[in-house]
Predict the structure of Peptidase S8/S53 domain-containing protein.
Amino acid sequence: MVSAIGNDGPLYGTLNNPADQSDVIGVGGIDYSDHIASFSSRGMSTWEIPHGYGRVKPDVVAYGREIMGSKISTGCKSLSGTSVASPVVAGVVCLLVSIIPENKRKEILNPASMKQALVEGAAKLAGPNIYEQGAGRVDL
């Protein structure tokens, strides 16, 4: 499952559910200059702090500021938000799934294996800390 982490930044601990859950791929937003978008929520997750410590979130970041999308009527308009970035990551997951032979998908494919592939393949950004970028910019 892929989910936007929310647009409550730049404060830390502002993650939204379900993206703050460990089995969900939480996606933050960046601009085309690879800077964390000011609106992008930041980790750590907070719901488990009374009984331990928070987890690193977001898991990855993707382009989510001033992305061109379609208008309801005609033409295009500029869109921003982590809900614009998360479909990019969902598309990357679909492309990764498409290269797994159909007869092997039940053996290999699960949310954890997709999250591992995204996190290990991410490009770490210079500057932002782990609670702002997670593993870095998604990199197919």
Observations:
- The radius of gyration is 15 Å.
